[in-house]
Design a protein that fits this description.
Length: 204
């Protein structure tokens, strides 16, 4: 019995000592992160792709509305054709924020290819039938603004074996800005992000 208690005590001490050696989590400043990049897509890659796309849009004049004012943009499909489980909204949101800050584009959340991004826009209009709501404060008919531009695109991945120890992974962020009225592409861009590293590194 004593031997069993002694073994249990040793095991407990070993477990608690092991837990104590774990490193505490640290905060990373995304604006001053000098750590090596991963082979998969990380936040810095989305930042780079979004910055490149917005800078090219602004430089091309594609989002400069004649006579001033702001274009209304809707987000169409941005397809993830990589081997990774990523949310393309991570790219789209960065683009939307930068375009909004530029003062040239505002994004509609009332219209989308799969329905409204913000369903509350439609839900709020159902209050028109409610006797409990002051009808003077309910959104009026004919107030939703139709979009001028549509943003669509695809993120693709291509893997290449350089040698027995090295892989090269190529990512391409391909985006198109279409004038909804004419169906013409006002702007198209492609941002390549190329990574080379140990072939044992998981990229998805």
């Amino acid at each position: 019995m004593k031997k069993l208690l002694l073994l249990m005590l040793i095991a407990f001490i070993g477990l608690t000592t092991g837990c104590g050696k774990r490193n505490a989590a640290t905060m990373i400043d995304p604006h001053n992160d000098t750590n090596p990049r991963v082979m998969g897509l990380g936040y810095r890659d989305f930042e780079q792709a979004a910055n490149t796309a917005v800078n090219e849009m602004l430089a091309s004049g594609a989002v400069s509305k004649p006579g001033g004012g702001r274009y209304v943009m809707v987000v169409s499909r941005v397809i993830n054709d990589t081997m990774q489980n990523i949310d393309t909204d991570q790219l789209v949101k960065k683009i939307r924020v930068q375009l909004l800050r530029s003062g040239k584009v505002v994004t509609t959340t009332a219209i989308g290819i799969d329905g409204a991004e913000d369903p509350m826009v439609a839900a709020a209009r159902k209050m028109r039938k409610s006797q409990e709501v002051n009808q003077k404060t309910v959104a009026r008919k004919g107030q939703i603004i139709a979009p001028d531009l549509s943003l669509s695109g695809k993120i693709i991945q291509r893997n290449h074996r350089i040698d027995s120890d090295t892989d090269q992974i190529e990512y391409f962020f391909m985006l198109t800005l279409t004038d909804i009225n004419t169906g013409l592409a006002f702007w198209e861009g492609e941002t390549p992000i190329i990574k080379r590293g140990d072939s044992g590194t998981v990229s998805w």
